[in-house]
């Protein structure tokens, strides 16, 4: 018999109870990301003061025993009594959802906090929270616990200062681990300082004594120079545009010879990691402008058809806008949804970028050549996909990725797939392989860390799509072992730290998405040599320093020449073939799953989002490792 369902079963959550009952709705979760979201909510309140010209300095302090403090020199939260609710404004803001001064544009013309839930959520999820307000010639104080008032508003000593200080201790009943990450907070603070030129932000860690300060006179121009580092591979000086006509918009962008792109977008100082309509406006402006310039130069001639993806290749861009009523997707504000913003951003960027290209002909030449090269590569890849058909009876109906250099054999039992690091190593390995049985798939840089990725990101990742399509089995729920196209899948990366990291990322992918291939012994690691040791007319190859030292010890009284291979891409083809790819001479390590539970925990700790597990691992194992420079 079913249970009764009456009005007695209806629960009404009041005050801040909904936050404590469902914290994930407000901060995304109760893991390390959710914990740090409390910091961002407190800091963003101070940043909103800076956006509106009332704050020049923010001090963030990671205290001992889990405390966090944020101090600004803004106007200070109001402490006068609210006419309608008969409570001090400070108490209303700290204890009531949807209470704040950002629902209209009287106190704030632009802000990142729009729902009036930010600091009250911090209060609800804190075991203790203390506030000090400096305004109206005095210092005011109030304290809370888990959203409830513990001490009412007190008028303390006289003070000429102005601003707000919030100190909070996250609730251990909500968060399993309360361990603030100094590096993460510094990175976020640095981006806030870049976006808000003239704002000084300091981050101090009382646990270690570390302290960093961020201040940038040139805003996002300084930011893009930092992102690009020393400028290696940069095509030309950064393009910069700024406008307050209709929308406050700043953009700085640059192209490099690299294939990957990096677009960081911000709305009201909030990092919109999933983009949105402002990013769409930027992409449209760049694509239309470049296409228009190509048509102008070609006259009546035919131009190479380009897409937004061609324009994005090699692009690094920083976009920052400030709008009065941003519409974010979700409380964590990861995507901007205002439909009108796309046209406004395009209206700022397009005319400025057109003028830039017209006034800088040599720069326009370099950029157009860069985009055309990307477009031609895309078209060639598409043509290759259309021509190359899946081999054998198990795969003849589908098309293989264009970057795969497949083998001619149609029998999976004697076929091998080498997953190599980059196009350079891909070119060498294609020459060194046995074309009949060995296929080559080059990957572009480090693949996505699937331990941290959502299903959507995994499904949309181009490199992992190519890998899955080449292997033939599909991934996750769609995995079908019968469609496996190769008996051996061999990870072949450089014998250095980067190569080891790429191998770790690939192992994580196979363990999470193609575990049956590991369990049945199809996954291998190649063992390319790191050193070539020449002793007289004899040549030896060593996989690591230990093997090299053994060789040198055996022939220590002889004339010895040692050379170190920088990577597979620079290794002579004949050496790559003899040492790493020739089935009769090479050495492979088969990846085996011995203890699934231990392996599960290892991937979770070393590749997961929680950095504290990696920190413990480094502390426990640092003494047994040597630094390889």
Summarize the entry for a quick read.
The chain has 20 helices and 21 strands.
What does this structure look like?
With 629 residues, the chain is an alpha+beta fold. The chain folds into four domains: 17-214, Histidine kinase-like ATPase, C-terminal domain (Heat Shock Protein 90); 220-377, Ribosomal Protein S5, domain 2; 397-528 and 565-593, Rossmann fold (3-Layer(aba) Sandwich), CATH 3.40.50; 596-629, no CATH class. It contains 20 helices and 21 strands. The protein has an eight-stranded mixed beta sheet. A five-stranded mixed beta sheet has the order 9-10-13-11-12, sandwiched between helices. Strands 15-14-16-17-21 form a five-stranded mixed beta sheet, sandwiched between helices. The longest helix has 27 residues, at 361-387.
Descriptive keywords:
Heat Shock Protein 90; about 625 residues; Rossmann fold; alpha+beta; 5-stranded mixed β-sheet; 4 domains; globular; single chain; Ribosomal Protein S5, domain 2; 20 helices
Question: Topology of this structure?
Answer:
Layout: H1 17-21, H2 24-27, H3 32-51, E1 57-62, E2 68-72, H4 89-95, H5 118-124, E3 126-135, E4 138-145, E5 148-158, E6 163-170, H6 182-195, E7 200-205, E8 210-214, H7 220-227, E9 239-243, E10 248-255, E11 262-267, E12 270-271, H8 277-298, H9 308-312, E13 315-322, H10 339-359, H11 361-387, E14 416-421, H12 422-432, E15 438-443, H13 455-460, H14 462-471, E16 488-492, H15 497-513, H16 515-519, E17 523-526, E18 531-535, E19 538-542, H17 545-554, E20 560-564, H18 573-581, E21 588-590, H19 596-607, H20 611-621
Parallel strand pairs: 1-7, 11-13, 14-15, 14-16, 16-17
Antiparallel strand pairs: 1-2, 2-6, 3-4, 3-6, 4-5, 7-8, 9-10, 10-13, 11-12, 17-21, 18-19, 18-20
Helix pairs in contact: 3-5, 8-10, 12-18
């Amino acid at each position: 018999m079913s249970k009764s369902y009456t009005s007695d079963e209806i629960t009404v959550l009041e005050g801040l109870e909904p936050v404590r009952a469902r914290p994930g709705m407000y901060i995304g979760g109760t893991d390390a990301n959710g914990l740090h979201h409390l910091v961002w909510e407190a800091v963003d309140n101070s940043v909103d003061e800076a956006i509106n010209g009332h704050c020049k300095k923010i001090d963030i302090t990671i205290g001992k025993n889990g405390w966090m403090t944020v101090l600004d020199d803004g106007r200070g939260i109001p402490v006068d009594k609210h006419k309608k609710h008969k409570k001090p404004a400070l108490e209303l803001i700290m204890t009531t959802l949807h209470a704040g001064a950002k629902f209209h544009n009287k106190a704030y013309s632009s802000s990142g906090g729009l729902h009036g839930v930010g600091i009250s959520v911090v209060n609800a999820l804190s075991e203790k929270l203390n506030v000090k307000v400096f305004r109206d010639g005095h210092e005011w104080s109030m304290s809370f616990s888990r959203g409830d008032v513990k001490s009412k508003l007190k008028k303390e000593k006289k003070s000429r200062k102005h601003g707000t200080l919030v100190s909070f201790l996250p609730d251990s009943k909500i968060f399993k681990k309360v361990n603030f990450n100094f590096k993460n907070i510094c990175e976020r603070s640095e981006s806030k300082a870049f976006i808000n030129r003239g704002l000084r932000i300091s981050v101090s860690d009382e646990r270690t004594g570390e302290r960093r300060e961020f201040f940038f006179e040139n805003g996002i121009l300084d930011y893009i120079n930092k992102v690009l580092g020393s400028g290696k591979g940069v095509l030309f000086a950064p393009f910069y545009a700024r406008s307050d006509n209709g929308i406050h918009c700043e953009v700085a962008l640059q192209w490099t010879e690299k294939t990957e792109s990096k677009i960081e977008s911000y709305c009201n100082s909030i990092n919109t990691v999933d983009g949105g309509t402002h990013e769409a406006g930027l992409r449209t402006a760049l694509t239309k402008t470049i296409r228009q310039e190509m048509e102008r130069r070609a006259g009546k001639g035919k131009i190479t058809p380009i897409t937004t993806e061609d324009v994005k290749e090699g692009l690094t861009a920083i976009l920052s806008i400030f709008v009065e009523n941003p519409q974010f997707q979700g409380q964590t504000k990861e995507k901007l949804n205002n439909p009108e913003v796309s046209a406004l951003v395009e209206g700022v960027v397009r005319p400025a970028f057109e003028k830039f290209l017209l006034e800088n002909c040599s720069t326009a030449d370099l950029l157009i050549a860069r985009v055309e090269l990307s477009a031609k590569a895309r078209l060639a890849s598409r043509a290759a996909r259309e021509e190359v058909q899946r081999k054998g009876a198990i795969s003849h109906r589908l098309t293989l990725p264009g970057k795969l250099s497949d083998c001619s054999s149609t029998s999976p039992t004697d076929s091998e797939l080498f997953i190599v690091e980059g196009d350079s190593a891909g070119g060498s390995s294609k020459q060194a392989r046995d074309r009949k049985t060995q296929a080559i798939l080059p990957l572009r840089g480090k693949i996505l860390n699937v331990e941290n990725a959502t299903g959507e990101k995994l499904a949309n990742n181009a490199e992992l799509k190519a890998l899955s399509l080449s292997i033939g089995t599909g991934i996750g729920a769609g995995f079908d072992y019968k469609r496996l196209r190769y008996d051996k899948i061999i990870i072949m990366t450089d014998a250095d730290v980067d190569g080891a990291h790429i191998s770790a990322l690939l192992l994580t992918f196979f363990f999470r998405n193609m575990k049956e291939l590991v369990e049945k012994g199809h996954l291998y690691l190649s063992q390319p040599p790191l050193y070539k040791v020449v002793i007289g007319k004899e040549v030896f190859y060593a996989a690591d320093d230990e093997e090299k030292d053994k060789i040198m010890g055996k022939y220590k009284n002889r004339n010895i020449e040692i050379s170190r291979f920088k990577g597979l891409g620079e290794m002579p083809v004949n050496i790559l073939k003899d040492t790493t790819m020739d089935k009769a001479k090479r050495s492979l390590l088969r990846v085996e799953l011995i203890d699934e539970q231990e392996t599960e925990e290892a991937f979770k700790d070393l590749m997961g989002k929680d950095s504290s597990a990696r920190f413990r691992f480094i502390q426990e194992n640092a003494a047994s490792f040597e630094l390889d420079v």
